[in-house]
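Changelog-linked ticket: S-adenosylmethionine example.
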Amino acid sequence: MLLSEDSWEVVTLDLRVRPVIKWAGGKRQMLGQYAPYFPLDYRAYHEPFLGGGAVYFFLSPAKAFLSDINEELINMYRVLQTSVRELINDLHSHLNDREYYYNLRAMDPAGLNEVQRASRLIFLNKTCYNGLYRVNRKNQFNVPFGSYAKPKIVDEEVLLAAHFALQGATLERKDFQVVLDRSRSGDFVYFDPPYVPLSRTANFTDYTNGSFDSREQARLADTFHELTQKGCLVMLSNSDTPLIRDLYGKYLKGFVVVQGVRCVNSRGDRRGRIDELLICNWLK
Ligand SMILES: C[S@@+](CC[C@H](N)C(=O)[O-])C[C@H]1O[C@@H](n2cnc3c(N)ncnc32)[C@H](O)[C@@H]1O
């Protein structure tokens, strides 16, 4: 907000499009390192591990196919796309209160309507400890209350900017291989899967109650190769580990080493800089 010389209030809106929720493995902090490698020219954009969608919102492509296996997450984006006013109204009804938080956390989303489910996810994300989404084996959200003094539960500017950005997007709750059906030659596909853990104790795969093991990583590498043969521009982020170097060995010239910020111990309370790979199939 700015005050002009004659003290009239001028409100400036910060309408940069950015993620509406914080997500484990979110790529917002990596955008500066990724930006030089994003292709300038492509037909449609695909992001099959959408999460918080940091890369999608940064690029804001006119035509996009966005998907994720997480049902609550895809419901939230659909509501943002079609019913942002109702969503904002519902978000205003929440309380930053411990008891209220645990009651809403315990509620089965299946018993709520779509707007209430989207609103519940955003509220829990803004008020839970460390703003992360994590579920247990029964697919129940299990992060404790964060006790923050003033969490920004309703950020209208960010919600509205995301709403407008999403108008050209197709949203689906699907396994990542849906990209094989949706893509065409000349499309750009960005993969940001759950990473290969750096140690046995590290576990970065708690977004859903499934696990993304080495067989899943190999299935993803097969998908990457198939898209390459089809003529798509494909980019993938993952940890710099022997498994990833092996699975993507034939794209060695497309390996870009970037610096990620990652939890460096099993309790996740110490963070450090760590090498990560960005793999681009068009770099020769
Ligand atoms: C590293 S996160 C993506 C983070 C995102 N790029 C961001 O900036 O916030 C990985 C995502 O993959 C999703 N996921 C896990 N297994 C999947 C699968 N088999 N198919 C599609 N999505 C999957 C998770 O639900 C999670 O949202």
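Closing comment: Example verified and attached. The chain is about 30% helix and 15% strand. The radius of gyration is 20 Å.
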